[in-house]
Amino acid sequence: MKKIAVVILNWNGAKLLEQFLPSVVAFSDEANIYVADNASTDSSIEVIKTQFPSVKIIQNTDNFGFAKGYNEALKYVEEEHYALVNSDIEVTENWLTPILNIFENEPETAIIQPKLLDFKKKNHFEYAGGAGGFIDKFGYPFCRGRIFDTIEEDKHQYDDEIEIFWATGACFFIRKDVYHQLKGFDDDFFAHQEEIDLCWRAFNKGFKIKYTPKSVVYHVGGATLNEGNPRKTFLNFRNSLLMLTKNLPKNQLFSIIFIRLCLDGLAGIQFVLKGKFKHCFAIIKAHFAFYKLANQYYKKRETIQKPNYFKSKSIVYSYFAKNGKVFADIF
Prior knowledge:
alpha/beta; Spore Coat Polysaccharide Biosynthesis Protein SpsA, Chain A; nine-stranded mixed β-sheet; two-stranded antiparallel sheet; 39% helix
């Protein structure tokens, strides 16, 4: 039996499957390949059956989003390791070999991320994950190779294999037993930042998360919900606050969330100054949704929350006040 399952979550992505599944099929001999379909209404299922007969199909009963979509589908996947791959990812030859080597030789490593480059600009890192993710004290995520909207060119400056805090959900490797021990993604997130929440819970339980440059994939990004969509703004701001509520050390919880709410307010003002009123309104909606859900999420807290979770005290301050636009300028 093959040790790894490549599982691609799909919703009405027939064109993406036609474009990107060929590279996955061609370069994944070590894996069984699945498409987990979130009740698509386009020709996705027909495309898989006719053009990619070796790919197994798992059909979810509804569009459950990213988090619950994977949680439901992975109930039917038996392989030891999961490769959770977006439908807009192009993989490269031997992309699975270094991942399997790490899982085989480093039992303490539970989650792995490959180097994520931009499909449209292949010599640059891609926004969603770059060369591995971290967060600051207030829960703002950033990556080696991408801080806020500044994207670095890949000059092999991050070709070191290191521990990271979070791995991108665009191409996310995890041991099956760890995934189920952590009870998978948080269904209530629907989409955005659920992978950071899962990695934070893994960190609190003592698991290691690793980045390897030896595996390279290319990501389109924004193929299902683009950066300009206020829905994306809403989910990112709401989910970040919910994630902090679940995972922050108790003695820091209320002070950090209060400061974060204030910083979100400044982000809203910035949107107004740019004429992006719908995005400002999305932040307001996110805050009200957070207030409604805060008590429910507080009850989801685990017994142990580790204090040393952050890489930077404030990436906002470093980026905007000190003009630290790239990772090397700050760390």
